[in-house]
From TrEMBL:
It comes from Tainia dunnii. F-type ATPases have 2 components, F(1) - the catalytic core - and F(0) - the membrane proton channel. F(1) has five subunits: alpha(3), beta(3), gamma(1), delta(1), epsilon(1). F(0) has four main subunits: a(1), b(1), b'(1) and c(10-14). The alpha and beta chains form an alternating ring which encloses part of the gamma chain. F(1) is attached to F(0) by a central stalk formed by the gamma and epsilon chains, while a peripheral stalk is formed by the delta, b and b' chains. The lineage of its organism: Eukaryota, Viridiplantae, Streptophyta, Embryophyta, Tracheophyta. Component of the F(0) channel, it forms part of the peripheral stalk, linking F(1) to F(0). The chain crosses the membrane at residues 32-49. It comes from the Eukaryota. PANTHER family: ATP SYNTHASE SUBUNIT B, CHLOROPLASTIC. This is ATP synthase subunit b, chloroplastic. Keywords: ATP synthesis, CF(0), Chloroplast, Hydrogen ion transport, Ion transport, Membrane, Plastid, Thylakoid, Transmembrane, Transmembrane helix, Transport. Pfam families: ATP-synt_B (PF00430).
Length: 184
């Protein structure tokens, strides 16, 4: 350590005779060289370093601004997408509700139409059965009446003689005459 302090102290005692020598003592020359280099670097490199740091700062700030703008844009797009999603969900609920009510309405209409058709078919069936029954009854009546008339004619023809026949005709003419007098 003595050499370092001696080199600083002996600066004032150097001979002015023009000799130049190299100081080979590393411990004595390195701190001086380093302090000179650092001083020069700080003095001359200060502006360059400030410029580099300012440019880096501006890039970082512009990157942050761009990121903020992109973030705001993403938030706006997210809000728009959420709004559209809510709108679509509301429309889907309306369609679903309307669809269900329309389906129920169509179901009720179909059931009512089917019931009406069944009632009409039941009425047609009942009317057809009634007419067929009436037709069958009328046919049976006609057949019974024809058989009764044929039997009565057969009985009358076998039992009637000409005198009885004459009296029946006379009585019927008398009855028709009295009916004619009443109507006049």
């Amino acid at each position: 350590m003595k050499n370092i302090t001696d080199s600083f102290v002996s600066v004032g005692h150097w001979p002015s005779a023009g000799s130049f020598e190299f100081n080979t003592d590393i411990l004595a020359t390195n701190p001086i060289n380093l302090s000179v280099v650092l001083g020069v670097l700080i003095f001359f490199g200060k502006g360059v370093l400030n410029d580099l740091l300012d440019k880096r700062k501006q890039r970082i700030l512009s990157t942050i601004r761009n990121s903020e703008e992109l973030r705001r844009g993403a938030i706006e797009q997210l809000e728009k997408a959420r709004f559209r999603l809510r709108k679509v969900e509301i429309e889907a609920d309306e369609y679903r509700t309307n669809g269900y009510s329309e389906i129920e309405r169509e179901k009720v209409n179909l059931i009512n139409a089917t019931c009406n058709s069944l009632e009409r078919l039941e009425n047609y069936k009942n009317e057809t059965l009634f007419f067929e029954k009436q037709r069958a009854i009328n046919q049976v009546r006609q057949q019974v009446l024809q058989q009764a008339l044929q039997k009565a004619l057969g009985t009358l023809n076998s039992c009637l003689n000409s005198e009885l026949h004459f009296r029946t005709i006379s009585t019927n003419i008398g009855i028709l005459g009295s009916v004619e007098e009443i109507t006049d």
